[in-house]
Amino acid sequence: MEVPLLDLKAQFARIKDEVTAAIHSVLESQRFILGPEVSELEKAIAEYSNCAAAVGVSSGTDALLASLMTLGIGQGDEVITTPYTFFATAGSIWRVGAKPVFVDIEPETFNIDPTKIEAAVTDKTKAIIPVHLFGQMAEMDLIVEAARKYNLFVIEDAAQAIGATYKGRKAGSIGTVGCFSFFPSKNLGGMGDGGMIVTQDVELADRLRQCRNHGSKPKYYHKWVGGNFRLDTLQAAILLVKLRYLDDWSAKRRANAARYNELFADVEEVITPTIREYNVSIYNQYVIRVPRRDELQAYLKDKGIGTAIYYPLSLHEQECFKSLGYKKGDFPESERAAAESLALPIYPELTDEQIQYVATMIKEFFSRKS
Ligand SMILES: *Cc1c(COP(=O)(O)O)cnc(C)c1O
Q1: Residue 358 belongs to a domain with what CATH number?
Q2: Which residue among 14, 50, 103, 192 is the one 20 to 30 A from 155 at the CA level?
């Protein structure tokens, strides 16, 4: 049996006609830059996320970058974030000239440990970027409390968490801004790159809109420097189709996760994901912790099962950040997660046979003599 980590062809088969029609309609209009589908998607995502406004941008990375730029964060500033995330989170902080300051994660959720944030605040700190990793939101109440106390912006990196909730509140709706990614492997994925920034502050949304278009307002008049961070009309049209399926797809991922949890209940070596009782995860990834992780991954590959390691090297250990002065051992929980975590196939179209096969092969691996 073959079980890929993700099967986008299975998803496309179901929505092919609708997506093709949406693409054709943009082709007929020839309005490729900031066409009407972009503002239509912005309205839909703002509403979906319980936010006052949304601004379509060129990627999740550019959502973070444009947010930092628009909030005026740069040279001499510090931004607190997690070392256990996709590179873009810290890369964006670096690119505006600010300094990423890392805080270790909670071992249960893989998200930033809110009890360690305050100790990392200095008089240069301007913002906190919590990442809602793998589809579960970070501990927002405590993060917002720390941010209020020190007058910091909160930029939610919700690239993996569109539609997730924390105590009933949607990802992106709590911080100063929330950043989504439409990278094809995200729960709401485009057919190319794309992203969105959501916020409750309509005046800020206005400035974000200028930022994504070279800081221009009116056209050809620039009070500050932005960039070309625009979302393509074609992507917006495709995403409008896919958005209608998002909740259904995320519910299927949750059902698949529940099935795995059940099947792993008697497997001592497998630590299944912890979701806090007040959180609803969208399971962008289903990540287990196991001993002999690399050996297991090779074994599963041999059996036709795709897996991935998110992330093999914590950001404080990356060569490009050497000048920040961090060293191995600085963030033990992040480093342990990097050594033990393994993402299993969780996509909505998985069959029960496939899930059972994955679980059986993992059980088989651990029941062999090591
Ligand atoms: C995917 C992702 C990003 C970047 O999104 P792109 O659209 O690929 O630029 C940022 N942060 C996290 C946590 C992500 O998973």
Answers
A1: 3.90.1150.10
A2: 192
